[in-house]
Specification:
CATH topology: Beta-galactosidase, Chain A, domain 5
Pfam families: Aldose_epim
Structural class: mainly beta
CATH class: Mainly Beta
Number of domains: 1
GO molecular function: carbohydrate binding; glucose-6-phosphate 1-epimerase activity
Catalytic activity: alpha-D-glucose 6-phosphate = beta-D-glucose 6-phosphate
Strand content: 35-45%
Distance between the termini: 43 Å
Largest sheet: 8 strands, antiparallel
Protein name: glucose-6-phosphate 1-epimerase
Oligomer: single chain
Number of helices: 2
Organism: Deinandra increscens subsp. villosa
């Protein structure tokens, strides 16, 4: 495994450090002082800070520090399934594997590298993986930190199998918020969703925005490619722009469920909301040699921006 991160601009620093679980992490920085930290465990973004040093992603104070377990927080990669079904572990195995730094990855459009600090990671199945999910693949991940501080994740799945296979995928994004009761999600109005708290029954969103008063776990299907998460107290809005990811998962465990989660601190559910770019309702099917790309960009803007400015 190489030890040099793939970086477009040599003036933008990257650094390799050890995480608390003993696994290497890559720190990306831009010239404005923003940073992102990517663990080789799971290819997981575990930290994203703006140019004032403020953490933008939630991480639990009780996050598991064992090298074999995904950290509760950041942006875990859910592949080849989202949720818990069949013989695979919940949310698939990609988030619990050690990825390698790829020195010479296949090219991506210049918009995904120019002027950005980035790292390219690669995951291939082990013999153990092939026993529980018998499909050969290459999963590539590029994590980019832009000069403006925007965070972009681009995943590519290639079928190196002799037969077609299908998979689900999600960027399980834990966003840091002041208080969940002060948060609203815009851009999913009138969308159909599958309610995981009602046996995945299908409903249509009736509100003019999503707000939170209890446990919430929905998959909004065939959703717009731009969604906003407004944090009124911090006067901060996260704008999520996605490509190749037709669905959006919105989740907060609320008080009762969070008490049963050993790796989530008391009342920490109030400081987080998960809003995921995903492909879940209709799994992606790849023929031999085919490749799928899913792209998520997260932008932070002042909450004076309203939805009409975001292209809804």
């Amino acid at each position: 495994m190489g030890h040099t991160a793939a970086v477009c601009d040599s003036k933008i620093a990257t650094e390799r450090v050890k995480g608390s679980n003993g696994v290497d992490q890559i720190v990306l920085r831009n010239s404005q002082g923003a940073s992102a930290k990517v663990s080789l465990h799971g290819g997981q973004v575990v930290s994203w800070r703006n140019d004032r040093g403020e953490e933008l992603l939630f991480a639990s104070s009780k996050a598991n520090s064992k090298a074999s377990k995904a950290i509760r927080g950041g942006i875990p990669i859910c592949f080849p399934q989202f949720g818990n079904c069949g013989s695979l572990e919940q949310h698939g195995f990609a988030r619990n594997k050690i990825w390698i730094v790829e020195e010479n990855p296949p090219s991506l459009p210049s918009k995904d590298s120019r002027g950005k600090s980035f790292i390219d990671l690669l995951l291939k199945p082990t013999e153990e993986d092939l026993k529980c999910w018998p499909h050969s693949f290459e999963l590539r991940l590029r994590v980019c930190l832009g000069m403006d501080g925007n965070l972009t994740l681009i995943s590519r799945v290639r079928n190196t199998n002799a037969k077609p296979f299908s998979f689900s995928f999600a960027y399980h994004s834990y966003l840091s918020v002041s208080d969940i009761s002060e948060v609203r999600v815009e851009g999913l109005e009138t969308m159909d969703y599958l309610d995981n708290l009602c046996q995945k029954e299908r409903f249509t969103e009736q509100g003019d925005a999503i707000t939170f008063e209890a446990e919430f776990e929905r998959v909004y299907i065939s959703s717009p490619n731009c969604v906003a998460v407004l944090d009124h107290e911090r006067k901060r809005t996260y704008v999520l722009k996605k490509e190749g990811l037709p669905d959006v998962v919105v989740w907060n465990p609320w008080e009762k469920k969070s008490k049963s989660m050993a790796d989530l601190g008391a009342h920490e559910y109030r400081q987080m909301v998960c809003v995921d770019g995903a492909a879940i309702e209709k799994p992606v099917t790849l023929k031999p040699g085919e490749e799928w790309t899913g792209r998520l960009e997260i932008i932070v803007v002042p909450s004076s921006f309203c939805s009409k400015n975001l292209g809804f």
